[in-house]
Amino acid sequence: MSVAALPENGQCAGASVRFVGSEIYRGSSYGPAHPLRVPRVSTVMDLCRALGWLDRDNYIRSPRALPAALTLFHDPAYVAALQRAEAEGTVSAAVRARHNLGTDANPVFAEVFRRPATSAGGTMLAARIVAREGGVVHVPAGGTHHAHADRAGGFCYLNDPVLCLLTLRRAGLSRIAYVDLDAHHCDGVQPVFAGDPEALIVSVHEERRWPFTGALDDDGGGNVFNLPVPGGLNDSEMRAILHALILPRVAGFAPQALVLQCGADALLEDPLSRLSLSNNACLEALAALRATVPRLVVLGGGGYNPWSAARCWTAIWGCLSGRELPDRLPPEAEAVLRAVVWPRPPRVGRNPPRHWFETLRDPPREGAVRAELRARLALLAARTGPEAG
Fold first, then answer.
1. Structural domain contains residue 98
2. pLDDT in tens, 172-226
3. Which residues are catalytic, by number?
4. Domain residue limits at 88
5. Residue 364: which residues within 8 A CB-CB, separation 6 or more?
6. Between 160-170 and 114-133, two packed helices, what is the crossing angle to 10 degrees?
7. What pTM does this model have?
8. I need a surface site. Which of 29, 130, 146, 386 has the fewest CB within 10 A?
9. Is residue 339 included in any domain, yes or no?
């Protein structure tokens, strides 16, 4: 499927479609020097509302997960340490060493427990909804895939994808799949499900990039397919990955539910990767996967350019909810994007191009499919893995 073959109106909706959000993300920041100082989820909500795409029928306010609920995956001592860090505004050296809190990557900030607990509550609610009703739930605040059971990692304090998958299991769905399109490997998700024949994990991530896990030959005990990709990955190459790896593995596994992590840091303008995708690649993967599964939870993830992340996740919601993606944004929506402030932007954000303000879709970024990528796909295609029961 080429970009041109995507439905012009973005319609890939099926059954019920819901959006889970919260106002806690508005003004919440990891600090003035942190990559997550930028507004993301609040901009998505504002943009969707400016387009008339959110209303009382499809918008759900995210609950905050209770500490006891978080222990479905996380160690109770870690959850308690996270609560204390928020209450006290600091951590001891022992807590920093034990739980990786209070570091440059994982600082203590005003909502250091409430914000991730809200994201986790949203994805756990999404899991319960799709388990009960089928359909799709979009949680752009989700996708924090680097947290481990007893420690923070990579800007992630709670692992909401793991909590989502475990909630699906608790709701009675045994066969679950997780596809991760973030530029960084899902090092907090893979170990939880490695070797589980009733789980499928597929991760596409940039090679030689933090956290330096997810090697091509790492099969996680047989049910994990890791594809490290070279810098400069383009839309044509992502299409090859979709049709040679992702779709065949998901179809062959036939999951009862799929969780899709759509990190926006694989896009060309993101400052924390060297990949070159347009958001059309995300929409194409989304449309193809949506047609293959009865239940879908779509998460956000990485994304450190506030315009490209917001436009990508808004376009995802438009696609899921059957909206027409306009060639030119109306004035109200354009005003939302022009009001975004990126404190201390890196070079990539100093002279924003017009399409960051005026459109949802990026210009396509096609190119050659490199021989090294074809060879890696062939190796993964030859591997056995969990199949439909």
1. yes
2. 999 999 999 999 999 999 999 999 999 999 999 999 999 999 999 999 999 999 9
3. 146
4. 18-382
5. 3, 235, 278, 280
6. 30
7. 0.95
8. 29
9. yes
